[in-house]
Design goal:
binds adenosine-5'-diphosphate, about 40% helix, alpha/beta, about 25% strand, binds potassium ion, binds ligand PAZ, Type III pantothenate kinase
């Protein structure tokens, strides 16, 4: 079985695959102090709970937090007796090289989204990923990552308001019925929700204006469905795009190593 690990700045997701068949997925907070033994206790208990035997033969990791990779390598060595593929490291091949400014370290999550989107749609794609940051990844006709946009994440924006302004509470993002808020929480929700709708529309429209071919827009990340409700922002919403991209890069390495 293949274990795909996607570490974002907020959450870490483990996802188990048997060939191309999805088996199970588990989510935990990203903490760089977590040791290999702690990962193992958490993962093995959840697998047992699901009744899935742990037969991990291969592991692939994408991490936007470099510090967590060390303990994940120890986990793989100690408990799975394998060396993980780590996206962005020289010994993990990419199907297509990114075309960006020399010296740029593209976020591995964006390279993985690119591989997943190209495999499903065949290029000319904008991937909009609602994570800690909201990223727009432009996937060229040949599957290369050719750049994009990084905007503050939805929850990060709400958290920033709360942190910086004494009178603003912590609030969760929802879709407000009206735009004119008649209390503080409603005003904040309106600012972030409708501000974000505008951000996604404007940024994707301008990317399309700069690009010389038709493009599809794919939304991913936990908050994509909320923003898509009642608005035409995306051509597709694919929750599993990052995990799919990890399986694509893993297969490419197996076939080309
Ligand atoms: N389905 C969801 N509903 C509401 N908030 C969500 C959902 N999924 C993720 N979030 C929130 O979105 C933010 C980004 O989460 P996540 O997508 O896991 O980011 P990352 O990949 O950067 O770790 C977090 O604050 C998380 O709590
Ligand atoms: C932009 C990001 C912080 C997004 O991370 P995430 O929201 O998935 O935690 C990550 O892709 C990153 O650290 N990128 C490095 C810079 C770049 O991609 O150009
Ligand atoms: K992201």
């Amino acid at each position: 079985m293949l274990l795909c690990i996607d570490c974002g700045n907020t959450n870490t997701v483990f996802s188990v695959w048997n060939g191309s068949e999805f088996v199970a997925t588990f989510r935990t907070a990203t903490e760089h102090q977590r040791t290999a033994d702690q990962y193992w206790v958490w993962f093995s208990q959840l697998m047992e709970h699901r009744g899935v035997p742990i037969e991990i033969g291969d592991v692939i990791v994408s991490s936007t937090v470099p510090r967590v990779v060390f303990n994940l390598r120890v986990l793989c060595d100690r408990y799975f007796d394998t060396r993980p593929y780590v996206v962005g490291k020289p010994d993990c091949l990419l199907p297509v090289q990114p075309r960006v400014d020399a010296g740029t370290q593209v976020g591995p999550d964006r390279l993985v989204n690119t591989a997943g989107a190209f495999d499903r749609h065949g290029g000319d794609i904008i991937v909009v990923d609602f994570g800690t940051a909201t990223t727009f990844d432009v996937v060229a006709h040949d599957g290369a990552y050719v750049g994009g946009v990084i905007a503050p994440g939805v929850n990060l924006s709400l958290e920033a308001l709360h942190m910086a302004a004494a009178a603003l509470p912590h609030v969760d993002v929802t879709r407000p019925q009206k735009v004119i808020g008649t209390n503080t929480v409603a005003c904040m929700q309106t600012g972030v929700f409708w501000g974000y709708i505008g951000l996604v529309r404007e940024v994707t429209a301008r990317i399309k204006g700069e690009y010389d071919r038709e493009m599809r827009i794919v939304g991913t990340g936990g908050l994509a469905p909320l923003f898509a409700s009642g608005e035409v922002l995306f051509d597709d919403i694919e929750d599993d795009l990052t995990m799919h991209g990890l399986t694509v890069i893993h297969r490419y390495n197996k076939e080309n190593a």
